[in-house]
Amino acid sequence: MTSSLSTKRQRSGNQRREKALAIEPALPTRRLPSIEEVLNQTRFFGEHDHMIQYGKAFYKRKILTPKIMNFPFFAQSGLYFHHHLQFQGLEEFVCMECPYFEDLIRVFYSNLRVENGHLYTEVNKTKIEMKPADWLTIAHLKYQGQKLSFPTIPDDLPYNRDMAFSDMIRPELQGQNAKTVGAMNVNDRLLHYALVHILSPRATNFAKIMHEDTFMLWAMKNNILINWPHHIMQHMMKCKDNKMPLPYGILITQIMGYYGVDLTIDSSTVLGWTHYFGTKSLKKLNIVNVNGVWHHGGANEDDEQQPEEDIEHEEASVPDHRVEDSRPQPPIQHDAQMLSQIWGGIQHLQEGLANLNLTVTTGFDRVTERINRLEERFDTFQDSFK
User: Where are the domains of the chain?
Assistant: First the structure.
C-alpha cells in the first residue's frame, strides 16, 4: 500500500515537472509563415470589437524592455539586497527568460481584465483564464501574502514615509534633501533597480524615488510578505488603462505558451545583454568594488553613451550644493564609502531586531490575553460552587 502511494506521488510530481518544463522555452518549433498569415491580423481576435479596440489603443503601444536578474552573481557578490527578494519568493521569477512576442503582448493587453483574482484575456482566438493556483506553475509565485494596492496603505502597517526614506540615504547625504537614487546606499539602490525594472516596471523616471517605491522597498526590507501575483495584475491593469508602455513581456509569453497560444507565426524579440541585470548593470550604475567593499564611484563618462531611457545618472542623483571650481579635485576617499556600507549593514540588522522585537511583543500580548481569559473562566467556575 505504501509503495503504491509513493509511486502515485512520484508520477504526479513528474507530471507537474514535465508540464512546468514544457513552458520554460514557451516557444514551439518555428516555421516560416506566409506573407498572408503575417499581414492578416484578424487571426489575433475572436471578435470584431476586440480588433477595433486593439487598433485604437494598442497597435502602436510600446513594450517595455524586460530585465532578467543574474541571481547567482549577486548571491556571491557580498551584497545583501537579494535576500529581500528571496524572502518574498521571487528568486525564480526575477530570473525567468525567453524570447518574447511584442505583437501578441499588445493583443494580450487589449483583451485583458482581472476579476476576483483571476486573469482573463484572449490571444490568437485562444481564451486564457489564469487562476490564482496557476501562478506557481507558470511564474514560480505563490498567491499569498498582503494584497497591497498603493496609495492605500493598510492601517496595521507601521509605515512612516520620512523614516523609511531616510533609512535608505547614505550617511554623508543625510539632511541634504536628496530625492534620487544616487543618494541611496548601494543595497537599497539595487533593490530599487529590481523593483522598477522587474517587479513594477516603468518606462521613465528610474532615477527618481517615488512614494510608491519608498513604500514597496520598506515593505520588502521589513519582511512583509507581498502577494506578488495580485501586485502584478494590478500593475498590468494600471499600465493598460493609463496608456502606459506595457510591462512583463517574458511573463506574458510564458502565460501564452502555457495556455497553448499559437506562437509559430509571429516574430519574437531575442534577448541580448541589455536585457540582463548583472555585472554590466553595476558598471552602468557606477557601483564599484574596491577591496571587497561595494560603493558608488565617481562620474562615469560612459553614461552619456548609453540609451537615455536606461540611464540612472549618478551626478543627477546627488544634490548639487557646491560652487564650480576649476581646480583639480582630490582623489576619492574610500573610507567614507566603506563607512556607508557598514552603516547600511548595521541598519539592516537594526531592522531585523525591530521586527523580532515586534513579533515577540505581539506574542507575549496574545499569551497574556489568553491567560486573562483562562483566569476569568476559572473565577466563574469557582463562583458556581459558592
Answer: 41-296
